[in-house]
Design brief:
Length: 256
């Protein structure tokens, strides 16, 4: 049964990679506006719904810090897709307006028939139910979205790249083993946090390496305004297992 689980997991990982490749091809055709759920594409999609909006309100609706939002707005303004104006009612308030060029930007069609027409209507409903259950199983250990890509697996070693979106973190957890065991994190992109129970949080950046002792309760994840990726190396051991514990609450996280 374990081999069957591994095969299914590898197929899901392969599917995730194919979806990302499809998104990258879209971006080559539509540029930074290909993905309406991220970056400039997300801002433009929101402005098409509300062509005039305060920066503060846009920041709130998108869940992006104003500093990070300003960087994206600078790119859009430089490209002539938006313009900023001072509010007539309050000179301290900046209004974002979608220009005609911004209004005329074409977005990719979100039709996925070519992928799902291989399934009948009934099979699609069953597939959606299965996916919902799998997503719940993965989500219960994380707050926010994370993406795992296995890199290598032998009888003794497992390596995977784990990417966290901003604010995403895993629950407190413990890597258990009777002998050996533990985990090593190699930070490869963005900025994140690592914390052991009873200790101060450790800020992580590219190049940092964290050796997580066996049987120590800890968590790790991205910072509020940064994506974060690390290579996770499972240290070989005897009778290894993971114990998942409580969430890192918003109150705890936002105090960092």
């Amino acid at each position: 049964m374990d081999d069957e689980y591994i095969t299914i997991y590898e197929k899901l990982t392969n599917l995730s990679g194919l979806i990302k490749r499809y998104q990258m091809l879209n971006q080559s055709n539509f540029g930074p506006f290909a993905d309406s759920t991220r970056g400039q594409g997300r801002i433009l999609a929101m402005l098409k719904i509300q062509p005039e909006i305060k920066i503060k309100d846009l920041s709130y609706l998108l869940g992006i810090r104003q500093q990070s939002l300003s960087e994206l707005l600078n790119k859009l303004e430089k490209g002539g897709y938006i313009e900023r104006k001072i509010s007539n009612e309050d000179k301290r308030v900046v209004i974002i307006n979608l220009t005609e060029k911004g209004k005329n930007v074409e977005s990719p069609e979100t039709s996925y028939h070519e992928f799902f027409d291989c399934l009948t209507s009934e099979e699609l409903k069953q597939f959606e139910e299965y996916l919902d259950r799998i997503i719940v199983a993965f989500d219960k250990y994380f707050i926010g979205n994370s993406y795992l890509k296995p890199l290598a697996k032998t009888d003794n070693v497992f390596l995977a790249n784990v990417t966290f979106e901003p604010k995403c973190r895993n629950n407190w957890h413990i890597h258990k083993a009777e002998k050996g065991g533990g985990q090593i994190l190699i930070c490869v992109d963005g900025e994140g946090w690592y914390q052991e129970e009873g200790k101060e949080p450790q800020s992580l950046k590219v190049g940092d390496v964290v050796t997580i002792p066996v049987n120590v309760k800890h968590w790790h994840g991205a910072k509020k305004d940064s994506w974060f990726s690390h290579i996770a190396v499972e240290v070989p051991g005897e009778n290894t297992s993971n114990e998942w514990c409580e969430e890192v609450t918003d109150e705890e996280y936002h105090q960092l």
